[in-house]
Design goal:
- This protein is α+β, with helices and mostly antiparallel strands.
- It has one domain (about 5-140).
- The chain is built from five helices and four strands; from the N terminus they run E-E-H-H-H-E-E-H-H.
- A hairpin with a 4-residue loop joins strand 1 (about 10-15) and strand 2 (about 20-25).
- Helix 1 packs antiparallel against helix 2 (about 45-50) and helix 4 packs across helix 5.
- Mean pLDDT is about 90; it is low at about 1-5.
């Protein structure tokens, strides 16, 4: 069955401003859709990691979101269910941004800076939410 235009996945790279790292965000995407998008936009080591680390996809079968990373090769990935504008979806995003903040604050040595972490979480949540909403609006207008 062919997907409707409005059901297309939302995939983008999110920057961790001002810390310089970035991670892949995919909402409503299958493994194959992530690989296809990634072949055009991501480093090969990221695609190889996504193909070989099956834990990401296994955990996602029973959850609404997953944030995974591998510091050895410097990659990270946020996987979400298809975009919806409801509390359950935003609760999942808030939960996953807590993992993002832990990942970034450990790497950049601000894990004990509670206010910096709070501002960073506020910022990263807002940026991802806006990207999801803007992508959904753009898809619905076409």
């Amino acid at each position: 069955m062919k997907k409707n235009r409005k059901d297309k996945p939302i995939i983008f790279v999110q920057k961790c401003v001002p810390y310089g790292d970035e991670f892949l965000v995919a909402a409503g995407a299958t493994e194959e859709e992530v690989y296809k998008w990634g072949r055009k936009h991501l480093r090969k080591k990221m695609i190889d990691w996504l193909k070989t680390d099956r834990r990401i996809w296994e955990i996602f079968k029973t959850s609404n979101g997953v944030f995974a990373w591998d510091d050895k090769i410097g990659v990270a990935f946020l996987l979400l269910r298809p975009y919806r504008n409801d509390w359950e979806y935003w609760d999942t995003l808030i939960h996953e941004t807590a993992h993002i903040i832990q990942w970034e604050s450990d790497k950049k040595l601000f894990a004990d800076e509670y206010e910096a972490r709070a501002y960073f979480q506020e910022n990263i949540f807002r940026e991802i939410r806006r990207a999801l909403e803007d992508n959904k609006k753009a898809k619905n207008e076409n």
